[in-house]
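Obj: model holo form, ligand = biliverdine IX alpha.
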Amino acid sequence: ILYPEKVDMTNCEKEPIHIIGKTQAHGVLVACDKKTLKISQIGQNSESFFGIHHSKLLGENVSTLIGAELSESLRTDDGNEEFSEVNELELNGRHFVMIPHISGDSLILDFEPVNKDSNPYKYQKQLTRILNILGASDSPESLCIDAARITKNIFGYDRVMIYKFDEEWNGQVIAEEKEDELESWLGLHYPAGDIPKQSRELFLRQRIRIISNVNYKPIPIEPALSPVSGEPLDLSRSQLRGVSPIHIEYLQNMKVGASLTAALISNGKLWGLLACHHYSEKYINYYQRQTCDFLTQIFSNELTLKETNRYLSKLDEWSKIKSQLIEQIGKKGRIKKGLLDNSVLFTDLLDCSGGAVFYKNKLRLVGETPSKTQVKSLIKDFLSNNEETLFFTKNLVKVYPPAQEFLSTASGVLSVKLGESDNDFLIWFRPEVVQNLSWGGNPKNKASFDESKQRMTPRKSFEKWTQELTGYSESWKDYQISAAKAIRENLSSIILEKQKKEIEKLN
Ligand code: BLA
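Output (holo structure tokens):
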């Protein structure tokens, strides 16, 4: 594949941003054949940094640029992707940091200017303090606020946000530190399409990214195709990778001048982003970015730890309730009696307004629920057609329109099938909670046709746009889903045991 001449909004997910063929302007990219160390591709801004026109460097051994000794140190073991010994060097009277990595058959060297006396260890001093502060936060929420504050203090971006993804990759600003005169974006939601899949995936490989000047002039890489592989250079891990024109337009519409984005990764999955905006150009050097990378990794780990602890304490709570229920069912295996006619009810297992047990064609309801007829139809027409043993939704009406009749008792449903049967169910209901969801701009306006550019462009306005969300309940949490799975396992084995005994009796 090649990077298309013209990108537009009609297939965002397909834009191959890793082979954009251009770099940002705050440094120079030099690519070499990783075997011969001959320069194979180079940024057209070579002259303004190195004082040598790019055409003069193509085909030369990289030692002509960086000297024999340093060049020798770049010889790599084949396939060692992680290789990244960073070096500082003087070129054309300027001081650079050279950041190498392997990309396919090429060795990519990102050259970025640094101050000669910039002390790489300066930033490390702050790390102990960061560790202490983040370690002391007592909840995931306060941890996010602390992380935003620390980032703002260290790097000085105008706005620092912790952005959290939901199950569908929509996101919300859950913590923010900003300059006083800026309006707050705290709590605002943004649709999944604002950060397409390929961009999210890149953040798992290259955790940190700056856009030093949103209004930069992209620097073409010369030649476009690598003479080594015949393909465009994969810039996934380059510090200088140019930016999708769509995203540039998005930031321009937001009036942003520069950004820093870092991945918040939990259990190998992109949990969210540290998103920083500046309203003019802003460049932070490689060592500062390393500090930021470190900070976000500590933060991600603390976050995972705190969320896991919360999960475990919930787990502890419901495992007590579960044991009580199993005891109530007793040796005789009286399922309905045990779940419904004792001091502890199965609906105590997770926050809900009511529940239903449908066992051997008999329905029993408890708490606030739809009517018996409505629940029976829900089971017959919808739940029993489901292949999965566990089903949950916070927006039943979307998948089962008749639920419109009982939003106030059952906008949300979580159900498990009991035993091997497709006809025995345990169901929990949750009422509607009407929410006002605030978006950063109307997400339905995500694309509009721009006459002057003759193509679709991202939405222009990011003003708060409020949507009333009806037909939704609170979402089901991981630990609640685990609780339902666990009780299903227990009940299913009790039922199986009972069936065995009955068969034995018959024999
Ligand atoms: C990238 N979009 C991004 C990134 C962010 C956002 C953080 C990553 C930026 C980076 O790599 O440096 C979105 N930024 C946000 C959001 C907030 C924020 C939500 O600060 C909220 C406060 N963008 C669109 C649409 C498309 C699109 C409709 O809005 C597609 C048609 C594309 N966004 C898009 C692309 C990238 C991107 C292609 C990758 C840019 C790149 O790496 O070159």
